Amino acid sequence: MKLWGGRFTANTDQAVQDFNESLSFDRRLYKQDIAGSIAHVTMLAKQKILSEEDRDAIIAGLNGIKDDIENGTLAIEGDYEDIHSFVESNLTERIGEAGKRLHTGRSRNDQVALDMKMYVRDEILETDELLKHLLEVLLKLMEEHTETYMPGFTHLQKAQPTTLAHHLGAYFEMFKRDRGRLHDVYERLNYCPLGSGALAGTTYPLDRNYTARLLGFYGATLNSMDSVSDRDYLIEYLDALSIIMMHLSRFSEEVILWNSNEYRFVELDDAYSTGSSIMPQKKNPDIAELVRGKTGRVYGALMSLLTTMKGLPLAYDKDMQEDKELSFDAIDTTKDCLKLFADMLDTMKFRKDVMEASAKRGFTNATDAADYLVNRGVPFRDAHGIVGQLVLKCIKQGIALDDLPLDAYKEICPVFEADIYAAVSLKTCVEKRVTMGAPGSEAMQVVIARYKNYLENV
Ligand code: ARG
Asked: What pLDDT shows up at residue 449?
């Protein structure tokens, strides 16, 4: 069952076999491995390195293996070293002699480099789809909530009023950049390492660009040593996933705060929250907490691979087999988180009244009250002081600036007139903010239209 028994006289120790094997986790590369082999023999036959009969027998055998794996009659298990050995041994069992010609002009080093690249390429596209879906959910909510007023925070203290659409729009920007990052990784990785051999190419007249095109790559890689030892694309992908998780984690933190008894800005759908085994009143934001928590393991995969790669001499070293398990876990984890988070968001209820009341209570319109005075000739520094006194008055009485009688305003500064109430109303405060990127609905509509256009085209 080994691909390299020839120069050995003793069998591998079982503990060594167990320590060395990767089949238990690289089994998930079977599709890529088979597709790569089919392209390889197609090219070998075109170059007259392999007969057409052998090519056809190999392709039929490989397709049979794929079908049997997928219909459950062939389990990927046994004492094979890795998925490459598994497929090749199975092929030879099925078709005999011709199977032994599959590996002509190829090494497992360029083979595994190819399989991982193709796998990452597929996963990038799936991650992108999930991000796009999340953006669609966000945009739908933004359209619904351009007039849902809420406090905007700095230092977790109420700062200035904004809208839910505006707040969600910040996440739209983040996840949009995440898609851009995935796109960049894809563009850089999409060159085919197959045909690089173990490290120094091969003496067979391979047509590497032909194989590359068959497999949907832009072309062949240009240095065979780099080709078998490059895992940059995986590190970049893990980096992109880490940033996605960082964004999801910040968003989760806000959902957790918003769902708390103190905020009550949102209500999680029953299907996306859980209860307590002891406290009957509880409705916990477990999904958001888990997304926040799982961020750590995705960062872990990135740090792990960076560390694995940092001291490796060229070209292939077995250390690189360690690129798989944690990466697979990070990829699965991020995809799960993206999916669940989008569904949780989609089913969450926003309590407009609570958000609006909260924006009113926090003196988020204090800047606007000062601006009112500035527009009537009071220097900003003085206006700041005057409004500070008004706020103090309100705090003592437990009311908002909106509820302070005009006399009380005038007592501190006679410039105030009855139109102060319109000037500090939540709606006015938000609607006056019309600079590009601000929450005023006019500015918001421009941005929403751009986002719509983006989702239709990208
Ligand atoms: N399982 C190996 C890996 O994941 C495949 C490449 C093995 N190459 C070798 N020269 N031993 O990296």
From this structure: 98
Per-residue pLDDT of 421-439, as tens digits, reads: 999 999 999 999 999 999 9
- pLDDT tens-digit profile of 62-73? 999 999 999 999
CA distance 215 to 40: 10
Give the model's pLDDT for residue 271.
85
Rounded distance between C-alpha atoms, residue 225 and residue 135, angstroms = 40
The CA-based angle 12-18-21, given to 5 degrees, is 90
Q: Is 82 in the pocket of ligand 1 (CB under 6 A)?
A: yes
Active site residue ranges: 155, 276
Q: Are the C-beta atoms of residues 265 and 355 closer than 8 Å to each other?
A: yes
Query: What percent of the chain lies above the pLDDT cut of 90?
Result: 91
The residue-averaged pLDDT of 206-211 equals 98
The secondary structure of the chain in percent helix, strand, coil, rounded to multiples of 5, reads 65, 5, 30
Which atom of ligand 1 has the smallest separation from the CA of 81?
Answer: 1
Q: What is the DSSP letter of 276?
A: -
Residue 116 Cα: closest atom of ligand 1: 4
Contact 194, 39 (CB under 8 A): yes
Answer yes or no: are the C-beta atoms of 350 and 266 closer than 8 Å. yes
User: Residue 156 pLDDT more than 70?
Assistant: yes
Q: What is the pLDDT confidence band of residue 234, given thresholds at 50, 70 and 90?
A: very high
Ligand 1 atom with minimal separation from the 198 CA = 10
Q: Tokens at residue 206, please?
A: 């391979």
Going from the Cα of 110 to the center of ligand 1, the distance in angstroms, rounded, reads 9
Amino acid 1: pLDDT:
62
Q: Tell me which amino acid residue 5 is.
A: G
One-character DSSP codes across 420-457: HHHHHSHHHHHHT--STTSSSHHHHHHHHHHHHHHHHH
Ligand 1, atom 12: closest residue by C-alpha = 321
Q: Is 111 in the pocket of ligand 1 (CB under 6 A)?
A: no
Ligand 1 and 321: CB distance under 6 A:
yes
